[in-house]
């Protein structure tokens, strides 16, 4: 017996209990609606997706070639279309997630308008976007199953038993569009209590994985901006605990915490850490401070000093009242941050880097793995990197190391189109193509994401359309560049009425009102000009 059959029989039994007043209720229609609404609450989604992530993490531990991926999305429709595309082209959503980017919420979803990535947007917009994404993913399930049910009814009417069996198997083995979301909570939007309250809302909306960074909440900066300020480990651990308590309170015991360190690019700290004895966590944090040794006689008015190894040290304090780290300590601080986070409740790491360089990432992760062998990284394949220039320069440097002739290249100008057809450019592109595979093998990267790709693709595709439509191409810009491609490539949005739920609503109307239902999908619906979108096979 399948869930579909169980639901049909259960409603049959209920009809007998309630008698003739339920005569209009079709048990199979109820079973269909239940299949189309598998997840009743956000917590159902959070538990389902947490189980997926934990399984994927275990599989990666056994085989680093089975890493996971995601793209950042800023609207439910964009997330939905991404998953529909994955199912259409790759036939499964396995190992594919969604990423919810705080940068894109700030830039695209704030009531203040576009904002920099500095935690100035409304924190309620974070769980709101999680809920929106899952609403659209659940609607994708309902729509696709509705298409299958429509085909099933046609096959039954035609007496095609083989097709009926095949379609019923698709229903019974249906793979949902609902996948894990790794959701950005920035630096926690306040003190640990504020972090806990927001984390709980995010989990209740469906988030199974929450990413939190070790910056100061009220000084938070984008990971690729200057002026980043970190907090002592004890402060950050309190927020890790707050997120874990939120997961445990709502019953998602295996929720995933991604601990992000921005220490590589952060040269400042807001506080000097509390320390009780030499070598403790606070003392290790303070050991990275940029200090000058002084005598007691040299103490000035309002000076703050720390005592280490019998010496009086005066940390360099800026006019902003922030303290400065010694230059060149970023990688060591990242390693300490990562080990400390994993030892205090985090499940995955995120080390924000300034460039995509496997050697740099692996050097830090190897040190972490000396202490915690199964340490795993979530890595930002960031659009803030100039991937073309970075990898061409890496290819150039490899040639230099090998003693090859590089006189045909200007390392500083390798972005130029004049190099596009060179062997160096081809070698660089191949390294970009295999970057995720290679870094997952060599640097412990479990999950690869691009934080804000759909921000860029939305701008690029709009530019493509606008430059032709408002110039001499007129409607041909849309027809040739959009609609014709939609039709020929089987993009379901060509039938936008169907995508928005029109056919699904018609079927529901028929459930509710029978032959009296007033439907939108009749002969005069202009969507009939288009072929049926290709169904995903399962």
UniProtKB/TrEMBL annotation:
Keyword Hydrolase (UniProt): no
Single GO MF descriptor: metal ion binding
Binding residues for Mg(2+): 184
Keywords: Lyase, Magnesium, Metal-binding
Pfam families cross-referenced by the UniProt entry: ICL (PF00463)
Cofactor note: Can also use Mn(2+) ion.
Catalysed reactions, semicolon-separated: D-threo-isocitrate = glyoxylate + succinate
UniProt-listed SUPFAM superfamilies: Phosphoenolpyruvate/pyruvate domain (SSF51621)
Name of the protein described by the UniProt record: Isocitrase
InterPro entries: ICL/PEPM, Isocitrate_lyase, Pyrv/PenolPyrv_kinase-like_dom, Pyrv_kinase-like_dom_sf
Active-site residues (renumbered): 222 (proton acceptor)
Necessary cofactors: Mg(2+)
Keyword RNA-binding annotated: no
Single biological process term from Gene Ontology: carboxylic acid metabolic process
CDD domains found in the cross-reference section: ICL_PEPM
Binding-site positions, substrate: 101-103, 223-224, 260, 380-384, 451
């Amino acid at each position: 017996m399948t869930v579909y059959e169980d639901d049909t029989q259960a409603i049959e039994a209920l009809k007998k209990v309630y008698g003739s007043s339920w005569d209009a209720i079709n048990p199979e229609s109820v079973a269909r609606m239940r299949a189309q609404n598998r997840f009743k609450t956000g917590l159902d989604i959070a538990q389902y997706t947490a189980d997926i992530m934990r399984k994927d993490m275990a599989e990666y531990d056994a085989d680093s070639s089975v890493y996971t991926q995601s793209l950042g999305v800023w609207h439910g429709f964009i997330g939905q279309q991404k998953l529909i595309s994955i199912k259409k082209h790759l036939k499964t959503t396995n190992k594919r997630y969604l990423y919810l980017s705080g940068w894109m919420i700030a830039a695209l979803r704030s009531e203040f308008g576009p904002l920099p990535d500095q935690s100035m947007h409304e924190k309620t917009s974070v769980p709101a976007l999680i809920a929106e994404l899952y609403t659209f993913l659940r609607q994708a399930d309902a729509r696709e199953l509705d298409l299958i049910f429509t085909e099933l009814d046609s096959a039954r009417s035609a007496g095609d038993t083989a097709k009926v069996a095949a379609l019923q198997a698709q229903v019974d083995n249906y793979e949902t569009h609902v996948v894990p979301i790794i959701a950005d909570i920035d630096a926690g939007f306040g003190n640990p209590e504020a972090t806990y309250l927001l984390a709980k809302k995010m989990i209740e909306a469906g988030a199974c994985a929450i990413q939190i960074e070790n910056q100061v909440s009220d000084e938070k900066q984008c990971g690729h901006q200057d002026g980043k300020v970190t907090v002592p480990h004890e402060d950050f651990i309190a927020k890790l605990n707050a997120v874990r308590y939120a997961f445990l309170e709502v019953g998602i015991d295996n929720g995933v915490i991604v601990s992000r360190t921005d220490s590589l690019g952060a040269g400042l700290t807001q506080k000097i850490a509390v320390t009780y004895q030499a070598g403790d966590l606070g003392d290790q944090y303070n050991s990275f401070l940029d200090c000058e040794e002084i005598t007691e006689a040299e103490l000035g008015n309002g000076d703050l000093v720390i005592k280490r190894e019998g010496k009086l040290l005066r940390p360099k304090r800026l006019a902003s009242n922030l303290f400065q780290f010694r230059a060149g300590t970023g990688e060591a601080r990242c390693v300490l941050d990562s080990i400390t986070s994993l030892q205090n409740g985090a499940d995955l790491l995120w080390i924000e880097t300034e460039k995509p360089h496997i050697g740099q990432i692996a050097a830090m992760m190897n040190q972490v793995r000396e202490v915690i062998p199964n340490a795993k990284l979530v890595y930002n394949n960031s659009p803030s990197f100039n991937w073309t220039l970075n990898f061409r320069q890496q290819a150039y440097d490899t040639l230099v190391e090998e003693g090859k002739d590089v006189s045909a290249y200007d390392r500083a100008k390798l972005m130029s189109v004049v190099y596009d057809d060179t062997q160096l450019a081809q070698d660089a592109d191949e390294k970009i193509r295999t970057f995720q595979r290679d870094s997952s093998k060599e640097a412990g990267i479990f999950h690869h994401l691009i934080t804000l790709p759909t921000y860029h693709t939305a701008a690029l595709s709009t530019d493509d359309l606008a430059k032709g439509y408002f110039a001499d191409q007129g409607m041909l810009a849309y027809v040739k560049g959009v609609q014709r491609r939609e039709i020929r490539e089987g993009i379901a949005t060509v039938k936008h009425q169907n995508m928005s739920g029109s056919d699904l609503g018609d079927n529901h109307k028929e459930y509710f009102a029978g032959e009296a239902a007033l439907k939108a999908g009749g002969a005069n619906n202009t969507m009939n000009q288009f072929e049926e979108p290709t169904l995903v096979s399962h």
